[in-house]
Design a protein that fits this description.
The protein is an alpha/beta fold. The protein is built from 13 helices and eleven strands. A six-stranded mixed β-sheet has the order 2-1-3-6-4-5, with helices on both faces. A five-stranded antiparallel β-sheet has the order 8-9-7-10-11. Strand 1, helix 3 and strand 2 form a beta-alpha-beta unit. It is globular, with a radius of gyration of 22 Å. The relative contact order is 0.13.
Length: about 375
């Protein structure tokens, strides 16, 4: 067992509303370190995956996709990936079908199982212009937008039989959340660690990175293990709805979550694998790309964003930390991002997202066995593979 200490700006944070003194903050923090009832396991044996909403609670929706269906699909795919690679890890779903599960029961499922990690999967809603992924840990919201996300996800308690009466005793005030953070200090650092790895994978894939954030989610408040809530994208954005509402997009997101999980597990358990080595050629590749390399028939769709007579480095400012694939055609070096085996729709969604981010000349290209082919030929070949 290992005890961990969260780095919190206690004196500046605890006194936002002046109701908790500096002395109390210091004494409580010291007491929490010495007498915390929680311990952190250095081995991941059980993972609980929570598909947001379900049953009579559809969550948010776009023109055709509903949050409860999208989240369930990603949750089941993520669990299958973890189980395939790590059969010794126990995977528990808070729901594996379209049923309503109370917020507190989702947390209770994880607590009863003594889970080592709780992954809550959601989709977001805002204006049509909003897009990107963000991952939350328990904490104080810093913006009104973060507060609204938490309020929307917490509001489903009104659908419970007692209309949320059981939550009346839960205090989500500034002071209470900070005290809860201190109580769970042994887990918060690891929640943040996993959340950061998730956002890195999303960004490398080409998703817009909205960052790691904090807010008062009831489901995170009640769990007693490293816990994150992932907002995978905005169903109210037509482009993101096409991506998340599509099976291939859901598969891509599950693969990215799995990559983050594997790296988190390696770090927690102190295992140095090729996944974590700088000189590993697969470090900047996602699971879809590695799988595609093993399938000589796969049509790989990418999004080209730059062409230059001079060879550029992958960390050039123009690429903004995107995962870059380079190929040469005639005298030009050409640069792409994203990898979509037999999935032109996924590539189109990424293209639209990149255009919104300022890559105005982005367009979809296709490859077979490492050689670029025409889009027309690629579409025909991809359709034949589906038959």
């Amino acid at each position: 067992m290992k005890y961990c200490c969260v780095k919190l700006p206690i004196f500046s944070v605890l006194n936002n509303n002046g109701s908790v003194s500096k002395l109390f903050a210091l004494l409580f923090f010291i007491f929490s370190i010495l007498y915390s009832p929680y311990t952190f396991s250095q081995q991941i044996k059980t993972v609980v995956i929570d598909a947001g909403h379900g049953g009579k609670d559809p969550g948010c929706h776009g023109n055709f996709a509903s949050e409860k269906e999208v989240c369930l699909s990603m949750a089941l795919k993520l669990g299958a990936l973890i189980k395939e690679k790590f059969p010794e890890i126990k995977i528990i779903y808070t729901r594996d079908k379209d049923v309503f599960v109370e917020l507190i029961e989702r947390a209770n499922i994880a607590n009863r199982a003594k889970a080592d990690l709780f992954i809550c999967i959601h989709a977001n809603a805002a204006s049509e212009a909003a897009y990107g992924t963000e991952t939350y840990v328990l904490g104080l919201h810093r913006t009104e937008a973060q507060q609204k996300v938490a309020e929307r996800e917490n509001s489903i308690i009104a659908l419970e039989d007692d209309k949320g009466a059981k939550y009346n005793e839960i205090d989500l005030s500034t002071d209470a959340i900070i005290i809860r953070q201190l109580q769970l200090k042994v887990f918060l650092d690891h929640s943040i660690m996993f959340a950061e790895k998730l956002q890195v994978e999303f960004k490398k894939f080409g998703r817009y990175d909205r960052g790691v954030k904090q807010a008062g989610f009831l489901v995170l408040y009640k769990t007693t293990m490293p816990s994150v809530l992932i907002e995978t994208g905005f169903l109210t954005n037509p482009n993101e709805e096409k991506f998340l509402g599509n099976v291939s997009g859901q598969k891509n997101m599950a693969e990215l979550m799995f990559q983050a999980f594997e790296k988190y597990r390696n770090q927690i358990e102190g295992k140095n694998t090729t996944l974590d080595k700088v000189d590993d050629p697969n470090l900047e590749k996602n699971t879809s790309e590695i799988i595609a390399e093993k399938d000589s028939n796969a049509i790989i769709f990418r999004v080209q964003i730059e062409s230059s007579e001079k060879q550029l480095t992958s960390n050039a400012k123009i690429f903004q930390d995107l995962n870059i694939f380079e190929y040469k055609q005639d005298i030009f070096y050409k640069y792409c991002t994203g990898v979509f085996p037999n999935d032109i729709e996924g590539a189109k969604n990424l293209k639209n997202s990149l255009i919104e981010k300022g890559y105005n000349n982005a367009f979809v290209v296709a490859f077979l066995n490492g050689e670029r082919i025409s889009i027309e030929k690629a579409i025909t070949l991809a359709k034949n593979l589906e038959k």
